[in-house]
Amino acid sequence: MAKSADKVHSRNGWAPLTDSTANRTSLTLDSVLGSVEIVEETAEKFARNAGFDEDTASQIAMVSREAAVNAIVHGNKYDPTKRVNASFEITDKELTIQIADEGPGLDPEGIPDPLAPENILRSSGRGIFLMRAIMDEVHFRMLHPGTEIRLVKLRVQKEIHQ
Length: 162
What we know:
single chain; about 160 residues; alpha+beta; Heat Shock Protein 90; 5-stranded antiparallel β-sheet; 3-stranded antiparallel β-sheet; 3 helices; globular
């Protein structure tokens, strides 16, 4: 009979999954750069609580920071009347982080490729590229007004032992 063992994805492969129940929190933040640190710290805490190793937790925190910066700078354009909503959830299968702004909206297909020769020396434009490289899933949703980005990192892989 086959047995399966729960594992958590880490930079060095798969490690045993720690016990957890579903955890969730939501934040409503001002459109100021100080809010970015709150998102980053919360993302790292949730990533560690989800069982990710230090390197992976740090990467998740970094791309969450990038999503928050994009929401504040490009989405809300620092408008003090607009908010950024962030939510964090751990389930048995994944860590999900959602960041939403109240700006005019974003077409993810219209974002220039940061690896294109004409963009290599630009100091910005790599955030979404990094999100896609680090996270298992990256989804955009138009909110009218605003844009929501959903970042997903899978926690569990079932290994079959014979």
